[in-house]
């Protein structure tokens, strides 16, 4: 789950998960994130969630500017660990919150879609064989960061899987998965860092 960690003079004061397609920050109360400080403009900046995991920060023509690495930005793709400066506030971007150990859901966002079917993955190899993991969110990631991570998205016409990151490329029914999402069908076999998982789809 992408999130922002807000600190002032090294003291963390707030954690903000980025659940929405667009999250606004400013001094006025109609923002999603409100900083009651005169250095912050009424509508200062916004965070846009694009696709599965890309987050852009956009300055909304603020008076004092939005900075990353000491440079004023207008709109910029954020990378894990980037620190945004607005006056005395420091906002660290984290691409995902603390990961679950082993395999399981590591982040899930966007609006909940209408569900017409029940989807799950059943682990069929390794020490977790037999474990069933329901797919219950609009976007869920599975895997081990740095090794292999995929995103499974629930769209109106079905479930899709795409490769996110890692040194070990996952496969679907023996074929490598790329960054372009591939639709899943019942009994597909996903192999992720040596662990095989069977996709189940039922009405």
TrEMBL record:
Record protein name field: FHA domain-containing protein
FHA domain: residues covered: 23-73
Species the sequence originates in: Ramlibacter lithotrophicus
InterPro entries membership: Cell_Proc_Reg/RNA_Proc, FHA_dom, SMAD_FHA_dom_sf
Domain of life: Bacteria
One Pfam family from the record: FHA
């Amino acid at each position: 789950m992408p999130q922002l960690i807000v600190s002032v003079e090294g003291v963390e004061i707030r954690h903000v998960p980025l659940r929405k397609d667009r999250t606004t920050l400013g001094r006025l109360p109609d923002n999603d994130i409100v900083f009651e400080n005169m250095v912050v403009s009424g509508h200062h900046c916004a965070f846009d969630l694009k696709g599965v995991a890309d987050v852009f920060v956009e300055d909304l023509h603020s008076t004092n500017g939005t900075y990353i690495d000491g440079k004023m930005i207008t709109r910029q793709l954020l990378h894990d660990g980037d620190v945004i400066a607005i006056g005395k506030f420091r906002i660290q971007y984290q691409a995902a919150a603390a990961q679950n150990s082993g395999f399981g859901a590591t982040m899930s966002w966007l609006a909940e879609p209408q569900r017409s079917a029940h989807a799950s993955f059943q682990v069929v190899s390794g020490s977790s064989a037999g474990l069933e993991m329901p797919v219950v969110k609009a976007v869920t990631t599975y895997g081990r960061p740095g090794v292999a991570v995929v995103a499974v998205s629930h769209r109106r016409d079905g479930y899709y899987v795409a490769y996110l990151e890692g040194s070990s490329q996952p496969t679907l029914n023996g074929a490598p998965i790329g960054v372009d999402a591939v639709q899943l069908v019942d009994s597909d076999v996903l192999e992720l860092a040596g662990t095989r998982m069977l996709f189940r789809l039922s009405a």
